[in-house]
Structure formats: C-alpha cells, structure tokens
Specification:
six-stranded mixed sheet; 37% helix; alpha+beta; four-stranded antiparallel sheet; 12 strands; extended; single chain
C-alpha cells in the first residue's frame, strides 16, 4: 500500500473515532502539514465520505451523517467484537431467523478478515457454547454484561481447541489474586458473561472462571485429554447454582424439572424429580426437590407464584414470611375496586 493511500485510510480511521479533529491535530498524527491534510480530506470527499469542515475557534473536521454508511475502519479487536456480537445474538435468540441482515453483515466482515483473524474467530466459535438465553434473576439490579479482552479470549480459545494447558492470573469476586495452572475444557457465554471451565491443577478439581477476571494468559507446553462428563455449559450452570451465597433454599414443588426451569433457570436452581410415593395417585403430577443458593430472597416469592404449582418451603424460615407477605399484598390488590372517574381511590 502506498504511503499517501495509507495516510488517507489512517485519516478516515481518526475521523471515525468521533468528535471534531483540528487540522493541526490531524497533521501531527499523520506526520504531514495542514495543507496535505486538506488534500487528503478532498480524497475522502471524492469517495463520498461525508466529511464536514467546521470553522471558528473550535473548528476542524468530523464525519457527518450521510445518505449511506461510509467505509468503516476496524482494528483487530473491533472486528472480532462485531462478529462475536452478531453471532452471539443469533445463537442466543436475540436476532431473527437466518438470512437476515445480521447474517449478511457477518458474511461481509468475515470475507475481508486477514487469515490469522479468521483462524482466531474459528477457534473461538469452535470452543464456545451458549446457555439458555434467559437472564439471571439473582443478579443485582443494573448489573451489566462483561466482554473479555481479546488478549485473554483468543489464547484461551486456542488452548481449548488444542487441549493445551494454560497459566493465568485470576482475581476472585472478593478481590483475591492468584496464579493458576489449568486445563481448559470449554468456553461458555451465559447471561451476558463469559466463562471457561477448566481443571485447576493447583486445587486438583474442576473450576469455572470468568474471563473478565483473567489476566496474564500464557500457553504452556504439552497437552491433556479432555475429561468425560457434562458439557461445559452444564458445568457452568451447575457451578453457578451451587456457588456459596448468603441463603441456601430448599423447596419441594409439584411439577417437572422442565416446568420449574421456566421460572428458575438451571444456572440458579438444581432440580431433582422425585419418585411417586407408594400408594399415591398415579395420575397426580410428581414432585421435585429444588435447591438454590442465592444472595437475595426478595425475588423468590414472585418467581414461586409464577410457577402456579403447589410448593413446600423446607428452608429458610425467612422465606415463609416473605411469601406470606407477598400473598397478602396480592390479596389486597385483587380486592381493590376501580377508581372513580376523577382519579380518587375508591
């Protein structure tokens, strides 16, 4: 690529980053004089890139809204982020059926990726699984999705695909930092967060790590044999459902595991369908034992009511009071009469 053309593309990238850029600033970034900057701006205008020139003390250049989208300049991280977002949206049900704009956009970006990025993307997709797209009702209000850094995601995905051990630095939820040597099994996207399931060699047990808490990833020599057992998504959901939280809840619910999981997802509740008692009504729906470990109890009464099934609370007693109070509120609201026309309560 000739140097003037490379500078024109760099100018486009600078303008697309947002805001107003002065001619002096652009000249300094490109290593040319301001007259050459104006010449490069002319090249962009000839390509129908809508560049606005603003006069005055705070004047300069910026990309203006145009009738068609200007060419985009994406660096490696941005290209991977866009593609993973499109693919994750389709797999998790956030976009419509195949053949939509999301599919065509994905295909267009993939076609222009350098080979090393295509291979990196394929490694991620080959090791990635998604859980049920329902969110986590136990998450704190306003909790945001977290995306991993490509410097972490790409080597982890490569190690999963090629069964290579990893050395990593990990920061736990309480802020403790540690060095780990792990055998990574799989990547999982769940409720807006990314996880890797792995055998932690220092602890001698299977663990689940959040990718946004990992740093300093280094691939180690050698290889390992992936373990048998549940798939990575099931391991993540089980790990989340059994994580140590403030409250341990045990219930018996008359209903199947499939029905219970519609309101209490697998990442929140462990459900075991119980055998019917001897001499019981063979036509009656079976009961299930439900175990949860949660930080808050306040959301559970509404979730249990939405199941619309008989249930028995085994523990904690605090939940009984919350359910009773919720039922009283519902009863009170159900007995309210419509307000008169002037808006005053009846």
């Amino acid at each position: 690529m000739s140097r003037p053309l490379a500078r024109v593309l760099t100018l486009l990238e600078l303008l697309q980053s947002g805001g107003v850029r002065t001619a002096a600033e652009l000249a300094g970034r490109l290593g040319v004089d301001e007259r050459t900057v104006r010449h490069y701006i002319g090249h962009l205008l000839d390509l129908d890139v809508p560049v606005e020139s603003l006069r005055g003390r705070y004047g300069g250049y910026r990309i203006a809204p145009g009738h068609r989208m200007p060419p985009l300049m994406l660096d490696d991280d941005e290209a991977l982020a866009v593609l993973l977002g499109l693919i994750a949206g389709r797999r998790s049900g956030l976009t419509t059926a195949a053949g939509t704009a999301g599919d065509t956009a994905t295909a267009k970006i993939r076609r222009v990726l350098p080979q090393r990025l295509r291979l990196a993307l394929d490694a991620v997709l080959g090791s990635l699984s998604f859980t049920d797209p329902h969110g986590d009702p136990t998450a704190p209000p306003g909790s945001a999705a977290t995306a991993p850094e490509s410097a972490v995601l790409l080597p982890v995905a490569d190690a999963v695909n090629h069964h290579r051990p990893l050395s990593l630095r990990y920061t736990s939820a309480d802020g403790r930092r540690s060095e780990r040597t792990v055998h990574p099994h799989g990547l999982v996207a769940h409720a807006g967060k990314w996880y890797v399931t792995a055998t932690d060699l220092s602890a001698g047990e299977d663990r689940t790590f959040r990718l946004d808490r990992i740093s300093g990833v280094r691939t180690l020599p050698g290889s390992f044999e992936p373990p048998a057992g549940p798939d990575p998504a099931t391991r993540v959901l089980t790990g989340l459902a059994t994580a140590p939280y403030r409250h341990e809840v045990t219930l018996r619910v008359q209903g199947t595991a499939a029905h219970i999981h519609t309101r209490l997802p697998a990442g929140v509740a462990l459900v075991e369908e119980l055998p019917s008692p001897d001499g019981g009504d063979p036509g009656a729906e079976a009961w299930s034992r439900v175990e949860l470990r949660v930080e808050r109890l306040d959301w559970l009464p509404a979730a249990l009511a939405s199941l619309d099934r008989p249930f028995v609370i085994e523990r904690p007693d605090e939940l009984r009071g919350l359910v009773a109070a919720f039922a009283e509120r519902l009863t009170h609201w159900a007995r309210l009469t419509p307000p008169p026309a002037d808006g005053a309560p009846g």
